[in-house]
Amino acid sequence: MRYSALSIFLNGLRGNKGWGLAWRAPEPKSHYDVIIVGGGGHGLATAYYLAREFGITNVAVLEKGYIGGGNVGRNTTIIRSNYLLQGNNPFYELSMKLWEGLEQDFNYNAMVSQRGVLNLYHSDAQRDAYTRRGNAMMLHGVDAELLDREAVRAKLPFLDYDNARFPIQGGLLQKRGGTVRHDAVAWGYARGADMRGVDIIQHCEVTGIRRENGKVVGVDTTKGFIGCGKLALAAAGNSSRVAEMADIKLPLESHVLQAFVSEGLKPFIDCVVTFGAGHFYVSQSDKGGLVFGGDIDGYNSYAQRGNLSMVEHVAEAGKAMIPGISRVRVLRSWGGIMDMSMDGSPIIDRTHIDNLYLNAGWCYGGFKATPASGLCFAHLIARNTPHETARAFRLDRFARGYILDEKGQGAQPNLH
After folding, report:
1. Which one, of 371, 397, 335, 9, lies nearest residue 186 by Cα?
2. By C-alpha distance, which of 74, 153, 110, 49 is closest to 377?
3. Are strands 199-201 and 117-121 parallel, antiparallel or unpaired?
4. Cβ(167)–Cβ(107) under 8 Å?
């Protein structure tokens, strides 16, 4: 069933008893042309674009848990394309353009809200860095606007402009940035892929990768062996563990990134705001809760939970930027497993095994990259050549010396 105003009206008259399942729950077939390991946003988007753009529908998405239970449902929902470097800027702008037409494309309300993303700056040096980034964005046709202190104050009067240590001097604004409901993205892509014949198999954990004559022939799972012509890994923070099944050691570390939601408040933040003097970002949901986060926990972990010291660190940064939230109560928090690469940029590439493909290393940027990641990964799988906007995301760039270090932090994943 396609969703429409008419279908909503008619089902309302029938007591909403006429809705079908959003996607099927099939048993796995013995063989698929493509198996995608990981039913998060990137895996589902890849399956969707394989079917929609390249006509490859004999595809299975294997998810060890349930759809929406991984990182795609454990983030702060921010989308943006305000990047500096040549390898990143065109890719994330492609993703932004796909976000702008996504709901009409897969016929699902993902609550795309282009409310703007404002990055605050607190020093002359930071202003100059943001000016450079803004100019680079505009050279690539991406919107950017540098605001001075008074322009920011007019937009967000509740910030602490006279903080003794971190006075706000202005900010870089991308008006087309914003937020999207994270779990709706997973559901929309799952439904869109299912409608085109893709099998989405939940609670099906991959336990081994079988190879013969130097090629992958299938995977062992908790539901038995499933054969495939091509195998694509999109397992986010578990990428290293899955790749080890094929004797591949990835240049990744897994860290926990916590996110938080406060009690509901009357609307007062109409955009996404990031703190330039610390790692803190916040927006306000349609229910009134503040959705915010900060740094990754500093230790390696596969747990979907963090520790209290980072909770305190994030709260301190938030109160330094917005003193008025000091008495706001936090309702809940969650953690996602970040696959942190050595330079803070992702990997979309073939491996040395001919029919094994890798999508990993998204660090903090995974959610906003979901549409472009899916499209570029599908292009790579279908045509065995990288998409033109993802050519910089090679697996061997670390050995070749072509790192893509957006933050300039070097090969230290904990600093990205």
Report:
1. 371
2. 49
3. unpaired
4. no
Please tell me the distance from the alpha carbon of residue 146 to that of residue 396, in angstroms, as a whole number: 36
Residue 306 Cα distances to 72, 105, 257, 275, 309, angstroms = 17, 36, 7, 21, 9
Spatial contact of 203 and 65, defined as CB atoms under 8 Å apart: yes
**Stretch (H or E) spanning 240:** helix 239-244
- Digit-by-digit pLDDT tens for the chain (416 residues) are 789 999 999 999 999 988 888 999 999 999 999 999 999 999 999 999 999 999 999 999 999 999 999 999 999 999 999 999 999 999 999 999 999 999 999 999 999 999 999 999 999 999 999 999 999 999 999 999 999 999 999 999 999 999 889 999 999 999 999 999 999 999 999 999 999 999 999 999 999 999 999 999 999 999 999 999 999 999 999 999 999 999 999 999 999 999 999 999 999 999 999 999 999 999 999 999 999 999 999 899 998 888 999 999 999 999 999 999 999 999 999 999 999 999 999 999 999 999 999 999 999 889 999 999 999 999 999 999 999 999 999 999 999 999 999 988 888 887 88
Helix 182-195 vs helix 370-383: crossing angle, to nearest 10: 30
Helix (H) or strand (E) holding 338: strand 330-341
Taking the CA atoms of residue 331, residue 184, residue 99 and residue 387 in that order, the dihedral angle to the nearest 10 degrees is 110
Whether the Cβ atoms of residue 361 and residue 103 lie closer than 8 Å to each other: no
CA distance 77 to 73: 9
Distant-in-sequence, close-in-space partners of 244: CB < 8 Å, separation ≥ 6: none
Q: Is the sign of the CA dihedral 401, 403, 407, 409 positive or negative?
A: negative
d(CA 396, CA 398): 5
Q: Which amino acid is at 303?
A: A
**Both tokens of residue 394?**
């090679």
Q: What is the per-residue burial (b if ≥16 Cβ within 10 Å, else e) of 256-270?
A: bbbbbbbeebeeebe
Q: Model's pTM, two decimal places?
A: 0.95
Based on the number of CB atoms within 10 Å of its own CB, is 154 exposed (0-12), middle (13-18) or buried (19 or more)?
A: exposed
Element (H, E) at 91: helix 89-100
Q: How far apart are CA 376 and CA 348, in angstroms?
A: 8
At 393, give phi and psi (nearest 5°): -90, 45
